[in-house]
Amino acid sequence: MPKKTLILIALAISPAAALAAPSPTAVSIAADPMIVTYGSPLALSGAVTPAGSVKVSVSSQACVKGQAQQSPLNVTSTAQGAWSATVTPGSRTMYQAKAKSTNSPTVTVQVRPQVALAKVGSHRFRTRVSVAQSFGAKIALFQKQTSAGWKTVKSVVLVELASGNGTIVSGKTFRSGIRAHKTVRILLTQRQVGECYLAGTSNSISS
Fold it and tell me: Are 204 and 145 in contact (CB under 8 A)?
């Protein structure tokens, strides 16, 4: 083949080859924060090596059985290789990033139930718990603050109240003979919330 033809072929191929991003050899992933309250978002971030702009697919696996699995979240890393995404886990969730055929390690995010407490009348209180599964028949502890710490005043058996958009609300309106002007809260222990959540507490209010 004439030398001139070889030079023309090389010039035609070189620009495309220069634009082709190298295949990643490593992908990292981190979550901030590592623990959230149900319904709160968190940031996932990481980097691909070598640095380059490539598609990064983030998959998730939730703890709650039957919880709708989210489709992989696709983002594009920057020219420096950095990528980021915002997610809202519904229960303890494991995340993993993938760039081309390279997978990151997994990162696991923990979730606390969203627990609310309100006074609705004289010696009457209302609690609501929002998570991705029913907490009906779970036992919540109504507690008051003392000089020695929190003391349980009453055990409250929750009932399922409503559901929608993947969230199930459980709760109860209950009475307590506790004296006025005491600081009180609701506690859900680890035994009650199970393996997919961390123990949770409500806001503190005055009785």
Answer: yes
pLDDT tens digits, one per residue of 67-92? 655 678 999 999 999 999 999 999 99
Q: Write phi, then psi, for 193 (nearest 5 degrees).
A: -80, -25
Structure tokens at 155: 């055990």
pLDDT digits (tens, 9 = 90+) for 26-56: 999 999 999 999 999 999 999 999 999 999 9
Q: What's the one-letter identity of residue 31?
A: A
The mean pLDDT value for 110-127 works out to 97
DSSP code for 123: T
Checking if the pLDDT of 6 tops 60, the result is no
| Superfamily of domain 114-206 in the CATH hierarchy | Immunoglobulins (2.60.40.10)
Strands 102-112 and 35-37: parallel
| Sheet strands side by side (includes 93-99) | 35-37, 102-112, 93-99, 55-62, 73-76
Residue 115 CA to residue 19 CA, distance in Å, equals 52
Question: With respect to CATH, is domain 24-111 assigned 2.60.40.10?
Answer: yes
